[in-house]
Amino acid sequence: MKTRMKILTAFAAAGVVLGSAGIAQAQRSPEYAAARKAGTVGERPDGYLGIVGSATPELRKLVNDINIQRRAVYTQAAQAQNTTLEQAAFVGGCKAIQRTSPGEKYMTPSGQWTTRGSGAPQLDSSCPN
């Protein structure tokens, strides 16, 4: 029960995390939107953005920049919620995957990239409801 409460608390923090100004600004960039639409980037269960397939140096830089910003916010959320960075990032990953739209890529719990269909995405069984 205590672990579940920590997960739920971290999940609430992840809402703040993914809505943070720095991350939100980076994720509104035309380059990010184009990469998402093209399926060259996708959400990973660990809370970070991943590259699907081969990458250009520009795409690698974009993903690295977004992930640096995410890590900073996850670190703040973990400290505020008295949990680990990994747990805060994991909960952020659950939320990010839930927010994907049909046609966008995400990584399944088994580690495979997939394209989201019209239904709910496959989430790790440890993701909060």
Automatic annotation (TrEMBL):
Q: Which residues form a coiled coil?
A: none
* Top-level taxon: Bacteria
Q: Note one Pfam family from the annotation.
A: DUF1318
Keywords on record: Signal
Residues of the signal peptide: 1-26
Bias (Polar residues) occurs at 109-129
Looking up InterPro entries in the UniProt record yields: YdbL (IPR008309)
Q: Annotated region Disordered: where? A: 101-129
**Protein name as catalogued:** YdbL family protein
Organism, scientific name: Stakelama marina
